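Quick entry, no commentary yet.
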Amino acid sequence: MTDKLNWDELDFSYTEVPYRWRAYWKDGEWYKAGLETDPQLPIREAAPIVNYGQGVFEGNKAYGTKDGKVVLFRPDEFGERLNRGARRMAMPEVPVEEFVRACKEVVKANRDYVPPYGHNGAAMFIRPMLLGVGDHIQVSAAEEYLFTIYVSPVGPLYKGGLVPHNYIIDHEHDRVAADGTGNIKATANYASTLATAKKIRESGYDDVLYLDPATHTKIDEFSSANFFAIEKDTNKFVTPKSDTVLPSITKKSLLWLAENRLGLEVEEGDIKVDEFDKYAEAGAMGNAAIISPAASVTYKDDRHVFYSETEVGPVSKALYKELTAIQFGEVEAPEGWIVDVDED
């Protein structure tokens, strides 16, 4: 089937590949771990994931590098975050070393579907999921669990590459509840944003940005990505610090790169919705888009334009270039960030 794939024309959508990884949990232990070929999930109608949303998931990528390798980006960090979500949702943890091994095995099994280096940022998307399954009609934690990973070749989240986007703040709804599950990758966190996302895209916006649910005065995050801004006078890289924001691996990486490779001051703190004038650049950051610069953010009747509606700001551009160069093997990576799928 790979001969039918045009690597340069891939969009961010699902392509079925031959193998996925699965492991099953019951009576206190994981069993039957390995590759499977059936894309249909073995889930019963009374499963807690279906009835009560007991599930967490992750999103990472595998990259075809400049020297012909296939690598994962910080897979241990994604495994640790999955387990933080598992603890919050009363689910069994997946040992991080097993999480990384499973990611490597499923990518290797579908190696022919990993986009080669040099095709408009195309990569292999990796979706691990931990789901409450089995027949369990009560509102309580499941007694059986499924850990599964599927993969798919994908292109960039937004066609056109690194270009500015127009965002809008939803001031009528919260993404998550204060003191809720916003800081884990729980399935229900994303379902609650779908209606707004559909509405704003029909109006020409690219994504929706949410305020903190406690005071509605500070920026929290986008429907599926973290927010960042660059101060005008200092070039300081600022991103919200909030218990309702998902601790993004991309954010963690960009904070380190901004400070250690670009020499910028960095800060996790409050970004007030009425103080956009302080910032020269802003945008979204996450695994899917890496960086999606903001041309504008609209809040109620006010549309604030950042660096440019047509050009990407210099700091956003430099950070995007540095991180993607690491992922595709063009520059040396910080220790532990890159894992070759063929190495033990």
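second:
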Amino acid sequence: MKKWLIILSRIEIALLFLVIIAGSVVRMTDSGMGCPDWPKCFGHLIPPTERAQLDWQPNTQFHKNQIIIVNEALYTAVEAFTTSEVYQAENWAKYTKHDYALFNPLHTWIEYINRLLGALAGLPMLALFFISLSFVRKDWRYFALAAAGLFMLGFEAWLGKLVVDGNLIPGSITIHMLGALILVAIMLVFNGLASREDIKPVLHTKRFLSLMLIALVFTLLQITLGTQVRELVDGLHQSGVERSEWMGQMDIFFYIHRSFSILILALNIYLWWTNRKDNMGYWQWNWVITLLGLEVLLGIILAYFDLPKFAQPLHLLLAAVIFAFQLHAIIHLALKGQVSPLKA
């Protein structure tokens, strides 16, 4: 039974990263309002593929809460009914949560796939919750982590609803991203506990542990700064500012984000070098330093080539993966760490 805890937690981690990349693609393509309602999409379980499906039609059956677009506004069916030959306004209620009433099939399906991945991520988490019930007496931490993960998934779904209802409220998108990272952290701890018998011992000193924790916090701060920069870019785009002019209108968050990356790179290089020099056993730092190099390269491309769309989701994904490897190293230490014979 324990092997299923390992397998399902790994599947969950993979799905969470798919959700993160899907969410980034949603932002990159401005598809956040591709589905103007939640949890359905234009009132459908499977969204429309063409604009005509959102028009009022005579002698047509509409189900309750199905959405149509009339005079550039959204209207929902008050009840399930079949239309007559003439449009009757009393059968429809204007959608009042926001006034966004555009239909773009590409945006709709990008957002829909994002939601599907989020729903799919709930399945292994739900399975972990029920399986962990059988481990409560042996190790209550499995159940506590699975319950926390299930709660966070529900919170993320609820926050996603608020984001849509508020037409992409500034700030809520950053919280949405941090919530996804908390989910990744919960599952990494869960997986570490379940597979701790297979983990090889590592060495540590007080100084090395402290610097690892600082590096992790710095990465979280950098991701938060990055999402704030992204929200500024979204605002410039919505205001009609040309892409070539975006870099000239960056605020203080961008310059802090850019300068902070130098400190983060230096700290992680030091940790990688110390780990290698003293043979401490953290394989994760090889990945961290490689991914950081790619991350810096993407940052340069974003800054000097007018924020190309392809680089944006990759930049965020790499940051999330770096966070995961740093946390995994700390979990590794917590489970199998041994004090180094070297001075702390």
